[in-house]
């Protein structure tokens, strides 16, 4: 039963995890890094090859702009993976200094909207069913712009995108506490994202990026609430110690990841309608193994969450047995699920240890030797 649920798990990796990345201070180059979206997809296919549960890769436009998206989708299929969410990017153009869809100038708003609609065109071409929207929009200084007018502009743009969505397509609206704007952020929290999505209808849902909350925020409460309302569209998984650190999921707080997966499963969200995506950067660690480790961390948290004896938990809760209920949860969390996952992988025809199998495969030596010349992909590529 648990194995069956784990076998069906789907975790999406992001194309940008395979390119060079860094901090505001330095982007570190690594050997073998992809030079174009085709090579990024080839690397993503390796993560799927060794884990068996990462069959799609998210694109970020324009970082992954190509002449033919249909051809890119064909390339992905040949490598055994598919195109996942299309991520819009209205934050890397001089025009967007004061915002994109909430910019005070209608011409800039029109340009941003045109980009969002182009992303839906790309969904049509690639067969992707999910558009992910994150806006860097906001203001730095009190009085800089009208908070309410910016919400109106946001609502107008979201509504135009919503109208353009085809059958079976949806958008996920992402929120983030702050950054790059520091005074007002136009979509700062799940409540704002939720309110916009509720107005629009069922094709608009909220995406929870685990790195986008204030310290101490109870993310699993947000997950439980959104699921209850049918508004949880998916996750951008990563870890944070301070702000939007984009470190490997499960690295900073594996217990939090377990609690989130526990709510996902309990709330009926463990289905293909919830997008389990990674949104990470590997600045100092090798990228493909960084993604493999992250996928394994999600699998481990999921396995533990599936192990919770829900009948025993419900009985303890009904009896008001505080310590007993807590113990049921902790028993599952403290179980070593690595042998179970190793067994499952062998049943799936995979090596029991994906990290070791990838290291042994020789893929890294091959890309490091082959990918010379050209420009490595990185932020803005
Ligand atoms: C913003 O911080 C974000 O989480 C959004 O998902 C972006 O599209 C992504 O990071 C880019 O790395
Ligand atoms: Mn994100």
Please, how many domains? 1
CATH-wise, what's the superfamily? Divalent-metal-dependent TIM barrel enzymes
Structural class, from helix and strand content?
A: alpha/beta
What fraction, in percent, of the residue positions are helical? 40-55%
Radius of gyration: 21 Å
- Major β-sheet profile: 8 strands, parallel
- In the CATH scheme, what's the topology name? TIM Barrel
CATH class: Alpha Beta
**Terminal residue distance:** 43 Å
CATH architecture classification name: Alpha-Beta Barrel
Q: What can you see in these coordinates?
A:
The protein contains 14 helices and twelve strands. The chain is α/β, with parallel strands linked by helices. It has a single domain, classed as TIM Barrel, CATH 3.20.20.150. The strands form three sheets. Strands 1-4-5-6-8-10-11-12 form an eight-stranded parallel beta sheet. Strands 2-3 form a two-stranded antiparallel sheet. α7 (219-228) packs parallel to α8 and α8 packs across α9 (287-307). The longest helix is centred in the N-terminal third of the chain and has 21 residues, at 106-126. The chain is globular, with a radius of gyration of 21 Å. The mean pLDDT is 97. The structure holds alpha-D-psicofuranose (PSV) and manganese (II) ion.
């Amino acid at each position: 039963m648990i194995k069956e649920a784990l076998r069906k798990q789907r975790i999406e990796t992001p194309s940008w995890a395979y390119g060079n990345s860094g901090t505001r201070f330095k982007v570190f180059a690594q050997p073998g890094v992809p030079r174009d979206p085709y090579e990024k997809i080839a690397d993503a296919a390796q993560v799927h090859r060794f884990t068996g549960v990462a069959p799609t890769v998210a694109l970020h436009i324009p970082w992954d702009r190509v002449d033919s998206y249909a051809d890119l989708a064909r390339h992905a299929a040949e490598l055994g993976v598919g195109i996942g969410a299309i991520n819009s990017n209205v934050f890397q153009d001089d025009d967007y200094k004061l915002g994109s869809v909430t910019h005070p100038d209608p011409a800039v708003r029109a340009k941003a909207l045109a980009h969002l609609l182009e992303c839906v065109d790309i969904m049509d071409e690639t067969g992707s069913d999910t558009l992910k929207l994150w806006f860097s929009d906001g203001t730095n200084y009190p009085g800089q712009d009208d908070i309410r007018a910016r919400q109106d502009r946001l609502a107008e743009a979201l509504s135009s995108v919503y109208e353009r969505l085809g059958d079976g397509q949806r958008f996920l609206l992402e929120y983030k506490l702050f950054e790059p704007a520091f005074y007002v952020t136009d979509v700062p929290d799940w409540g704002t994202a939720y309110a916009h999505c509720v107005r629009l209808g069922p094709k608009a849902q909220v995406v929870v990026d685990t790195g986008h909350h204030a310290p101490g925020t109870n993310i699993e409460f947000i997950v439980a609430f959104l699921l209850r309302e049918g508004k949880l569209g998916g996750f951008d998984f990563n870890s944070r110690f301070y702000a939007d650190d984009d470190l490997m999921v499960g690295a900073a707080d594996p217990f939090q990841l377990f609690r989130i997966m526990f709510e996902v499963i309990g709330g009926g969200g463990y289905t293909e309608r919830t997008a389990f995506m990674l949104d990470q950067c590997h600045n100092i660690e090798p990228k493909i193994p960084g993604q493999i480790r992250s996928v394994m961390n999600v699998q481990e948290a999921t396995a533990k969450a599936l192990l919770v004896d829900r009948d025993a938990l419900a009985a303890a809760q009904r009896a008001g047995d505080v310590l007993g209920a807590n113990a049921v949860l902790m028993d599952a969390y403290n179980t070593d699920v690595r042998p179970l996952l190793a067994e499952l992988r062998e049943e799936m025809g995979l090596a029991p240890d994906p990290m070791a199998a990838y290291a042994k495969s020789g893929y890294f030596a091959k890309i490091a030797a082959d990918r010379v010349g050209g420009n490595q992909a990185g932020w803005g590529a």
